[in-house]
Specification:
Elements (H helix, E strand, L loop, with lengths): L4 H15 L15 H8 L2 H7 L5 H12 L23 H9 L7 E3 L4 E5 L6 E3 L17 H8 L15 H7 L19 E5 L3 H7 L3 H4 L5 E5 H7 L7 H19 L1
Antiparallel strand pairs: 1-2, 2-3, 4-5
Helix pairs in contact: 2-3
Length: 260
Amino acid sequence: MKYTKEYLIDELHRFYEEYQHTPSTKDLTKGFPSEGIYRRTFGSWDEACKAAGFFSKSRISNEENYNQHPKKCLCCGKEILYELRRNIYCSHSCSAIITNTKKRREVIKLKICNVSFKVCEVTGKVYCNKDRNGRLRRISPYILTEKELYYRQASFCFDVMKYPNDFDLELLKEYGWYTCPGGKSNHSPANPNGVSRDHILSVSEGFMNGYDPINIGHPANCRIIKHIENKAKDRKSDITYDELLERIKEWDDRHKKALD
């Protein structure tokens, strides 16, 4: 027997008149069309109830649960209706506010990869909440910590090739500059046995004791050694700060005379 939609709707109304409540799939006993017939005809049990002017018991239960803890609009904070529960805004106007104004610069969320973009409070630049290794950033990468700022100021900013009498360039010529085996640069091969510039008085000691970072980054505090030795030295210092100041004075005096 082929059932029409009108007949199936009438059967639901007949059930309601007899039992005085909205039918559920478990209520469809002998004498009424089965749940499968309704699903094949309307596509789902909920659609069948909706066509008959009823809400299914499952919908009523879900709606009651939702209304106890409704989702709130990300823009205005108002509660979102059950029918709109899949949305993150309560209306088109709220969606437009986020999309078309500066509010979207505060955080733009990408649901698929859980990545967001935020605006640095200091520089105004936009940054990703995750670094290139996937680790979560707690603060803006454009804001340097006190330690990061010190290490940057204490770094060497000169060319050793301009001072052939002060550095062991023969060692550099023999082993070459150290490059990471991982090879961040595509232009030069890895050279794990190469040399690197070393702070004779370590930057770590300078930071812990509050020494002037300009003096720590002075050429007089630099020497060329094999990178393996540099790594083994770690944070140790081979001279005191007073000795460094004396080396700086001698360096400046020597090169000042050379210029004169």
